[in-house]
Specification:
The protein is an all-beta fold. Helices cover 0% and strands 74% of the residues. It has no helices and 20 strands.
Length: 210
């Protein structure tokens, strides 16, 4: 075993890892793959992928991709400046910045900047969100601030935040949201543009105009 530093944290790593009961191929240190296929892979270090098909990736460190198709990706670390991804499950603990992704199940703990992202199943985000051209059926979010521009969501559920602030959802452009509910009963929905279509709001008030 050895100690690997990720940001301000020191993490103890055991060199024999298992994913789904099967031993995973393990890489220690920064890695880059392009125009290839990966099976079950565990990486401690930064990972960069370009035109890759993968089954099961576990990453402890920064992750960047350009054209990836993956069944399951678990990241402890940041995803930055990434684009063109298709995931069955994407589970991230760390900040996320990606453009052009299709995800069946998306779970993020950390701030997110999502552009041209489509979530077809579960979407659960903890942390501030900036979204543009974002589409989802049901989004569960725990944050005091979330902004949507030209986005379409059927239902937004805003979980109660531990911070002593009102939760604020801001809608602009031609965003369309069927319903928004605030568990805190102290939420605010800011509708900035006339093109926004907003359905029902429970547990909050609606403010219109810039």
């Amino acid at each position: 075993m050895f100690v690997y530093k990720v940001g301000m944290y020191r993490v103890l790593i055991v060199t024999v890892l298992s994913l789904g009961g099967l031993l995973a191929k393990q890489y220690l240190g920064d890695q880059s793959f392009q125009h290839t296929s990966l099976d079950k892979v565990s990486i401690v270090g930064a990972l960069t992928l370009n035109s890759v098909v993968a089954k099961d990736l576990s990453i402890l460190g920064p992750f960047q991709f350009d054209e990836i198709t993956a069944d399951k990706v678990t990241v402890t670390g940041p995803i930055k400046s990434s684009k063109k991804g298709k995931f069955s499950v994407l589970d991230v603990t760390g900040p996320v910045e990606m453009d052009g992704a299709s995800v069946e199940v998306l779970r993020v703990i950390g701030p997110s900047i999502l552009t041209h992202v489509v979530v077809t199943g579960e979407a659960s985000l903890i942390g501030p969100l900036t979204a543009k051209y974002f589409n989802a059926k049901r989004l569960e979010i725990t944050a005091t601030d979330a902004t949507f521009e030209d986005s379409k969501i059927e239902k937004i559920v805003v979980k109660k935040s531990k911070k002593q602030r009102n939760e604020v959802i801001t809608l602009s452009g031609n965003s369309r949201v069927t319903s928004i509910s605030f568990e805190s009963a102290a939420g605010v929905v800011k509708v900035l543009d006339a093109g926004v279509e907003l359905g029902s709001v429970s547990g909050g008030v609606v403010e219109r105009g810039r």
